[in-house]
Amino acid sequence: MKILVINGPNLNMLGIREPDHYGKETYADLVKKIHNHCDKNGVEVETFQSNHEGALVDKIQEAYGNADGIVINPGAYTHTSIAILDAVKSVSIPTVEVHISKVEEREDFRQISYIRLACVKTITGHGTDGYLEAIDFLTKETVKK
Ligand code: DQA
Description:
- By secondary structure, the chain is of the alpha/beta class.
- The chain is 38% helix and 18% strand.
- The chain is built from five helices and five strands.
- Helix 4 links the parallel strand 3 (69-73) and strand 4.
- Helix 3 (53-62) runs parallel beside helix 4 (82-91).
- The radius of gyration is 14 Å and the shape is globular.
- 1,3,4-trihydroxy-5-OXO-cyclohexanecarboxylic acid binds at residues 10, 73, 75-76, 78, 99-101, 103, 110.
- 1,3,4-trihydroxy-5-OXO-cyclohexanecarboxylic acid (DQA) binds at residues 10, 73, 75-76, 78, 99-101, 103, 110.
């Protein structure tokens, strides 16, 4: 079981950016938390972050044949990127959308999620625990099949 966890723009600024929305944990803390959780549960995991839309598309394409599940927080590209939506559709890998904040209670422009159309589940507002919930969901889904 191999999971790829992808974070989009500005998620490298966790702990610094808008702590009221995103908390005080840093991106390094998040990566450590994900790896500890996966080690405990015998899940192979790779984490990746980029501020660039094309790099996110490249990473999703690379997952084809190499990952059993994708957890993705596309950051602001959630609300704009058809290219990332198409990339997830192209690889047909079960994908969970995660947002640290409760996007549904924020600005109107955050109410659109293109990637959601290609995702098996969306988790919002659970802070960084949402990533672990997404990993657990994908682990159980894949075992079920
Ligand atoms: C976010 C929500 C997005 O609207 C925002 O642009 C982000 C982070 C979240 O994790 O809550 O960068 O995806």
